[in-house]
Amino acid sequence: MKRNKLRMCIVKNKKAFFHKWSDIRKIIDPSPMVGGQMGGVISFTVGIIEYEDDGTIHEAHPYEIRFIDIERKCDMSDDEKDGSIEYIVEKEGDK
Fold this sequence. Notes:
7 strands
């Protein structure tokens, strides 16, 4: 079974595992008022996170998420087609 590596983060002063980004879309009905807005769709991005202490899954706005992995090394060499990013995580005691 393939396991995904999750990034550690802090959300609302609690440690969490970051799973992925997700786009949320909400349909807005037209205004019943004369000359009101015509309706449409509002779209925004949220992060799907899992709190470390109780394992519950939540949505968090991007500004609420602070990643705590220290160093990121981005390898964008020409021979890599997918443009993957390699993350290096330092533990607190490794400094």
